[in-house]
Design goal:
This protein is mainly α and 285 residues long. It has a domain of 171 residues. It has a two-stranded antiparallel ribbon with strand order 1-2. The protein is elongated and about 115 Å long.
């Protein structure tokens, strides 16, 4: 190895080899890409958090009304089914008709119940953080994403990133602080040629990770909920409340559905009354 003398301190400084220079370049590229990966992860989590807040607002203003509409429409459909079953088999009693109709709609009833549970979950309030705490959360998330993102090829990296993402999603600042205090990196002492190979391989892997993250962001942006969120925000800039307009439209549909339900239930009630009367006449005869 060649050496240069330091004129100021009289020290002997090792001259960098070609391998040293390659390592420096690859490490700088790697650090920039890790930074980009961390920022993309943060952007994705913030987009998801925005969507969750919007979903809660949408659920409170429109989603609950849509569920009410679906329940009424399902009840009307149930009466239509009972009417059809009763007409096709005049010997079934009302309890048997109820059971047969329920079997046909039980899947739809479960789906509505699950949607109701999801709206309830979305409506749960997230912890209120100050702006300073939010800035700290973003800073800690960036640090942790650089340390634990699965591109680092560590055995528990995927599990750790899942914990980190969940902590950020739930506003758990204390957990992020605790994880960040344990996130000091330790570089392995590796022969230079092998180190260059590993650095290049990791740079290639990071390129794939970046493409995947950008694809995930695009998938979020193209989702119906995100597009609706953008439409609502654009309407607000024009001084319009799109969610309230949608809610009014659903309320109008609810009134129509209630009318249909009353008609369907009355038709079934009349049919069953006629059948009861007919049985009475037969017994009298």
């Amino acid at each position: 190895m060649w050496y240069n003398s330091s004129a100021m301190a009289g020290e002997v400084v090792p001259k960098k080899t070609v391998e040293d220079l390659i390592i420096e370049i690859e490490e700088r590229k790697l650090e920039a890409k890790r930074e980009q990966v961390a920022k993309l992860c943060l952007m994705i989590e913030e987009m998801k958090a925005e969507l969750r807040r919007f979903e809660a607002e949408y659920g409170a203003k429109v989603g609950r009304l849509l569920l009410e509409l679906e329940k009424i429409e399902l009840k009307a459909r149930e009466y239509d089914l009972k009417l059809r079953i009763a007409q096709s088999n005049p010997y079934l009693d009302e309890e048997e008709i109820e059971r047969e109709a329920e079997r046909e709609i039980e899947g739809e009833r479960r789906r509505i119940a699950e949607e109701e549970r999801r709206i309830e979950e979305a409506g749960k309030k997230m912890p209120e953080l100050s702006e300073e705490e939010r800035r700290e959360m973003r800073r800690l998330y960036l640090k942790l994403a650089k340390r634990y993102h699965p591109d680092k090829a560590g055995g528990g990296s995927e599990r750790m990133m899942a914990i980190i993402n969940r902590a950020y999603e739930e506003g758990d600042l204390e957990l992020l602080r605790r994880l960040a205090s344990e996130a000091d990196e330790i570089d392995d002492v590796t022969p230079k040629k092998r180190r260059i190979e590993l650095l290049r391989r990791e740079n290639e892997r990071l390129d794939r990770v970046i493409r995947e993250l950008k694809g995930e962001m695009e998938k979020i942006r193209s989702s119906p909920l995100y597009r609706l969120k953008q439409q609502v925000e654009q309407a607000r800039k024009r001084g319009e409340d799109l969610l309230e307009r949608l809610a009014d439209e659903v309320r109008a549909k609810i009134e129509l559905a209630k009318s249909r339900l009353r008609l369907a239930s009355e038709r079934f009630r009349v049919l069953m009354a006629l059948r009861k009367a007919a049985r009475g006449v037969l017994r009298w005869l």
